Amino acid sequence: MISAAPSLSVETDPSGRAVVRADGTAHDWLTAHRDALRATVTERGAVLVRGLELRDLEAATGAYRALSLDLMPDREAFAPRSRYADGVYSSSQWPADQPMCMHHELSYAEEIPGLLALVCLAAPASGGATATADAAAVLAELPSDVVNRFIDKGWSLVRSYNGEVGVSLVESFGTDDRAGVESYCRANGIEFEWAPGGALRTRQRRPAVVRHPASVVDCWFNQIAFLNEWTMAPEIREYLVDVYGADGLPFTTRFGDGSPIDEDIIETINAVYEAHTVSLPWQAGDLLLIDNIRTAHSTEPHVGHRQIVVAMAEPVRRDA
């Protein structure tokens, strides 16, 4: 006799976040409910599981094992992380007083995580929420002329690795061996050139809109606004341009043909994200599952110690 899978009661918090209250030991509860949780993530875009009391790194990695996640390494990162185990990392190192704007993890890579799993080991005194936004709703609200221009041209990420600002070659490519970096770039559709002093400049063109493989909805899936120079704090942008030049920024975005993206387009994208933002403060022990294609996420500024353990999982290749 085949027993029925346990039911999953999903609440909708006043913020709009789907929330599930767990009532058992983490491993057993997650093992029993993992299929229902994955279905809920596909349907709702993200779900917060509260009550598992995941308070240390061992508990977090145990939760990822119970969910049977297919973990993947972090490559092409735009900010440093600490690696705790294979496929398990800290959240990106980012100034606490600065927001990390809406984006989809590794949207510029050839292999992208289909699912993000985040565990909060320590919640800050204030702020620091991992907010989310529905990528299909964002796409529907963006001006059609902006969307059509990006559909026609795509978008490109331009990066400069100068050894002083931004991540290192090892943090991004897993090696600083020139042949190894070039091999990775060729295998992943990344144009590259070396400067006389050894600095590396790369460019990769990607689509701005993708179709979700499960729900078959079109999603605004990119990091056009977040990694663009106009999203930087003005004083930081001015400093970087002054020191490294307009073409030497650690990262910025362009249209797929290399032409610049006007500031007003970046402001429009960020305004639409803001209108669709769902934010619920972290509590220590929380588990947040995010469909990385259907749902953008951001980090709000915070005060106090914040520790989030991140797993990138269920890799999807663009050519699949």
Automatic annotation (TrEMBL):
Keywords from the named record: Antibiotic biosynthesis, Dioxygenase, Iron, Oxidoreductase
InterPro entries for the chain: AlphaKG_dependent_hydroxylases (IPR050411), TauD-like_sf (IPR042098), TauD/TfdA-like (IPR003819)
GO biological process: antibiotic biosynthetic process
Cofactor(s) annotated in UniProt: Fe(2+)
Gene Ontology MF, one: dioxygenase activity
Entry keyword Oxidoreductase: yes
All residue ranges annotated as the TauD/TfdA-like domain in the record: 27-310
Entry keyword Transmembrane helix: no
Highest taxon listed in the record's lineage: Bacteria
Pfam families with a match to the protein in the record: TauD
Coiled-coil regions, chain positions: none
Name listed for the protein in its UniProt record: Alpha-ketoglutarate-dependent taurine dioxygenase
